[in-house]
Amino acid sequence: MSSHGAVLACTGLAKCFDEGPETLEVLRSVDFTVQPSEKVAVVGASGSGKSTLLQLLAGLDRPTSGTVRICGKNLAELSDFEKGQLRNRHLGFVYQFHHLLPEFSARENIAMPLLMRKEVSVKGAGIKADAMLAAVGLAPRARHKPAELSGGERQRVAIARALVAQPDLVLMDEPTGNLDPHTADKIHELMASLSRELTTSFIVVTHDMRLAGQMDHVYQLTDGQLLKAKQ
After folding, report:
1. CATH number at residue 124
2. Which domain holds residue 111?
3. Residue 2 lies in a domain
4. Distance in angstroms (rounded) separating the CA atoms of residues 63 and 13
5. Does residue 60 surpass a pLDDT of 50?
6. pTM, 2 dp
7. What is the rounded CA–CA span in Å between residue 201 and residue 57?
8. Which of 27, 70, 92, 132 could anchor a disulfide with 160, C-beta 3.0 to 4.6 Å?
9. Domain tally for the chain?
């Protein structure tokens, strides 16, 4: 794939960890490009480095070597503040363990990325949060706090929060891990409509081969290398 106009492009990406006298090479010379509207799955055994890859692509961790560009911007050249701004404007992230703010309701958690933007009113953020709650089937649970929600409901809130600002790219770490097949299908339908209507791109780390099979491309992470598994 050409990197021209790519939402994400990484070149020669590598990540090593020092473990005593040993060096653990988690990622080795990963080259990876995602175009607008593309839905990509990354599969691999537990511990193969899938979550590490997502952290690097989001600029939440620094690579040992190589570059990551989001919407043409090299993450290594940005300050922490600039990276935060880039994530808020262009990236959505679904963590494996949700990371919802416990003191806020589901609706407030979902609205949070919009409330960080000066040009979005509280009312406007609430309207968009309500629409996302409906889209993930949680409208009746809007006022519930994370502790009052099931694992699957918290997962859906996290997904809605990542999508509410209509980012260019959404990174998802095991997004359907706590969901039943019917709800997982609803989430995929939502992803597909955003991909189609807003040219949102998705990178999904998953063990769910059913979900992976619905993506445009599937990559396998093996021995630190990202290999194409499906065109």
Report:
1. 3.40.50.300
2. 8-230
3. no
4. 7
5. yes
6. 0.82
7. 13
8. 132
9. 1
- What would the two tokens of residue 193 be? 């409509």
Which pair of tokens denotes residue 182?
């019917």
Cβ proximity of 66 and 4 under 8 Å: no
Residue 32 tokens read as: 């990876």
Among the listed residues 105, 159, 113, the one whose alpha carbon sits nearest the alpha carbon of residue 137:
159
**Which tokens go with 20?**
């005593």
Cα–Cα distance, 169 to 199 (Å, whole number): 9
Rounded Cα gap, residues 50 and 174, in angstroms: 10
Query: Per residue in 45-81, is it b (16+ CB within 10 Å) or e — as a string?
Result: eeebbbbbbbbbbbbeeebeebebbbbeeebeeeeee
pLDDT digits (tens, 9 = 90+) for 3-43: 447 889 999 988 888 777 887 778 888 888 998 888 899 98
The answer on pLDDT for 162 being more than 60 is: yes
The model's pLDDT over 73-95, given as tens digits with 9 standing for 90+, comes to 888 888 888 888 888 778 888 87
